[in-house]
Design brief:
This protein is of the alpha+beta class and about 80 residues long. It has helices spanning about 1-5, 10-30, 35-40, and strands at about 50-55, 60-65, 70. The chain has one domain (about 1-70). Strand 1 and strand 2 (about 60-65) form a beta hairpin. The termini are far apart.
Length: about 80
């Protein structure tokens, strides 16, 4: 699937896209279980897909509205005293 959408992308870009897509597919798969879907629909359960990009020390969360991973943290944070 990633190859079809990113045929000319670098190997690293395609690898990351595969990693992110596996998280999105995992969320979709969880919703096929009736008891999970019911809990989500009743707002007793929230499902999230988080991706930690180790090389940058960046945490991303999947936004289901935009269908994109968005950064949550930054390596530029001031260290605590």
């Amino acid at each position: 699937m990633v190859e079809a959408f990113l045929p000319n992308a670098s190997h690293a870009t395609r690898c990351r896209a595969c990693e992110e897509m596996s998280l999105v597919l995992g969320l979709r798969n969880l919703l096929t279980f009736p008891w999970i879907k019911e809990a989500v629909d009743e707002r007793r359960l929230s499902l999230h897909a988080w991706y930690f990009y180790l090389k940058r020390g960046q945490l991303y969360c999947y936004n289901q509205e935009t269908q994109e991973f968005e950064g949550l943290t930054s390596c530029d944070l001031e260290p605590a005293d």
